[in-house]
Design goal:
Blueprint (H helix, E strand, L loop, with lengths): L1 H25 L44 E9 L10 E5 L24 E5 L5 E7 L10 E7 L6 E7 L9 H5 L2 H7 E2 L2 E2 L11 E5 L2 E2 L5
Parallel strand pairs: 1-9, 1-10, 6-7
Antiparallel strand pairs: 1-4, 2-3, 2-5, 5-6, 8-9
Length: 219
């Protein structure tokens, strides 16, 4: 009788173990991160890159004043679909100044702020991180506030996209933003939060935002 009980108990354990293993095998692998949607480059990518094109757009070399507008500390990571950092990526951004004017001869909106760089670029760190010091984007006729991004590097196709600001009333009227489905909109829409600690001497305060970028197939 004791032998029968030991045999039955062992058999039950084997059955439970097999069932557990089957259940584990049935669990799908962790879902890949959704790719950041691409968007148009727009007409105002610089014809010539400025001599000062670092990741601080608020200060132009040789000029004593900082750019007009609310300073924005913008950062994030460039990742592959599995969440791994994409080393060697170069991140470029460009945007209009605080008065809605691009540093581009095709923008007839008026003189551009000479204290705003308008364009910046940086290389990601080993963990895929990037940082920019720029200004909070503003609307201009026909467009909601946004910042253009271009990411290029070895092992992947370049990505051009745009980053939008959560809660802006112009978003729903913007023709490019409206082309995105709701899930894609979430991927390119960020919250700006106060960050007075980053710019304590700035009367208008400062803000920060985080924008992670997920590329497609990375070899």
């Amino acid at each position: 009788m004791a032998g029968f009980l030991r045999h039955a108990t062992t058999r039950r354990r084997l059955m439970v173990g097999a069932a557990t293993l089957a259940a584990l095998r049935a669990v799908p692998a962790a879902a890949a991160l959704p790719w950041t949607p691409g968007q148009t480059e727009g007409p105002f990518y610089p014809l010539e890159l400025p001599l000062d094109s670092d990741n601080d757009l608020v200060r132009v070399e040789g000029r004593p004043e900082r750019a007009s507008g609310t300073i924005l500390h913008l950062g994030g990571r460039v990742l592959d679909p599995e969440g791994r950092p994409v080393r060697g990526a170069r991140v470029e951004i460009w945007q209009c100044d605080a008065f809605g004017v691009y540093h581009h001869p095709g923008d007839r909106g008026g003189p551009a702020d000479p204290d705003f760089q308008g364009f910046g670029a940086t290389e990601v760190t080993d963990d895929g991180a990037y940082r920019f010091r720029t200004i909070e984007p503003v609307p201009y006729p026909g467009r909601t506030p946004h910042i253009h991004f271009k990411i290029a590097g070895p092992g992947f196709e370049p990505l051009t996209t745009q980053m939008y600001v959560a809660g802006r009333p112009q978003n729903e009227r913007d023709f490019l933003y409206r082309r995105l489905d709701p899930k894609a909109r979430d991927l390119v829409t960020v919250k700006l939060v106060p960050a007075p600690d980053l710019e304590p001497s700035t009367k208008s305060g400062a803000k920060r935002a985080s924008f992670d970028i997920v590329l497609g197939v990375v070899t």
